[in-house]
Amino acid sequence: MGTKEICIAIGSVILGVILGGSITWFWSKHYYEKASKELKGAAAQLKKEAEEVRRLTNLILLGLESKGIMTLTRDAKGNITGFALTINVHDAVHAVDGTSPSLAQTAKGEEERKGGEPD
Predict the structure, then answer these.
(1) What is the domain extent for residue 45?
(2) Number of folded domains in the chain?
């Protein structure tokens, strides 16, 4: 192999690396830009959904506060920071107590056993 063939072989390798690297860079850039746009769109959608959930949660909390079920705590801007739950118990208690006598017969000299006492 002569010097000319060696230079052509080295030049081919260098050209192949440059050309392959350029193609790889182009397609990688295209793929990552596309993925980045999709990710930004998904993030924007999630942010929109989170804001809707936050709005509905606030409506539920305000409804519970208006019914006297809880008291909301707020910061200086009026944002809800917590709540205190109010439990109102309205119940009628009716107790009926009754006893029914029972007779126990024991043999002469034996004592009646009381439940729960050891022998």
Answers:
(1) 3-85
(2) 1
- Whether 107 is in a domain gets the answer no
**Per-residue pLDDT reduced to its tens digit, 31-69:** 999 999 999 999 999 999 999 999 999 999 999 889 888
Mean pLDDT of 92-113: 69
Token pair 């439940």 in the structure block, residue: 115
Query: Does residue 114 fall inside a structural domain?
Result: no
Q: Where are the beta strands (DSSP E) in the chain?
A: 70-74, 80-85
Distance CA 85, CA 47 (A): 29
Q: Phi then psi for 67, rounded to 5 degrees?
A: -85, 0
pLDDT for residue 20 is more than 60: yes
Q: How remote is the C-alpha of 14 from its chain's centroid?
A: 54
Tally Cβ neighbours within 10 Å of residue 66.
Answer: 9
Rounding to the nearest 10 degrees, give the CA dihedral for residues 66, 71, 77, 80: -90
